[in-house]
TrEMBL record:
SUPFAM superfamilies found in the cross-reference section: RNI-like
Origin species: Sapayoa aenigma (broad-billed sapayoa)
Superkingdom as given in the UniProt entry: Eukaryota
Name this polypeptide is given: ATP5S synthase
Length: 183
């Protein structure tokens, strides 16, 4: 293979994984469709009332439409990217999201996350760890998550104005507990 072709192939494959199937969302509901997308991309989901993380795409629970509501998303080392974020629009019960070592997460993703009406209401905890494409701009975009209670930021080399960014965010979200591990 010529140099760079392997990376191009994985980029293409990730774009395929992240393509939104709006007909599927209509057919099975937003939580099921988002679960399928997240698991396909290597993330985990936890449903309301369950302590167990769902990680097996083929083991997704079945039942009446809308029975299983996503409460938490752990996208550690997943290939989720901006293109698939439309899957998040219909999720009404997500309280906790962890984005760790997500190479495709960038400022536009965080902006899109913060503009998702349902997440503005439900999201309480967000952890962003070792996502190298996140900058101050992306963190500042989180100010629209008005119910966010806890934000953990760690190993984000793209954040250059740590103090200023944190001050602006704290002013916008006075009830936010902000924990930093940024050096």
């Amino acid at each position: 293979l010529p140099p760079g072709s392997c990376r191009a192939f994985w980029g293409w494959l990730n774009a395929v994984f992240n393509k939104v199937d709006y007909e599927r969302i209509q057919a099975v509901g937003p939580d099921r469709a988002a679960s399928e997308w997240l698991l396909r991309c290597g993330a985990l989901v936890r449903y309301q009332g369950s302590p167990k993380w769902q990680q097996d795409y083929n083991g997704l629970p079945t039942g009446p439409l809308g029975k299983y509501k996503i409460e938490a998303i752990n996208a550690t080392e997943s290939c989720i990217m901006y293109r698939g974020f439309d899957y998040l629009d219909g999720l009404e019960h997500v309280t906790d999201i962890r984005l760790e070592k997500c190479i495709y997460i960038q400022d536009e993703c965080l902006q899109r996350l913060s503009e998702t009406n349902n997440l503005q209401k439900s999201l309480l905890q967000l952890k962003i760890i070792s996502c190298g494409n996140v900058t101050d701009k992306g963190i500042l975009a989180l100010h629209k998550l008005t119910n966010l209670e806890y934000l953990y930021l760690s190993d984000l080399p793209g954040i250059r104005e740590k103090e200023t960014t944190c001050q602006v965010l704290q002013r916008a979200l006075p009830n936010l507990e902000l924990e930093l591990d940024l050096e």
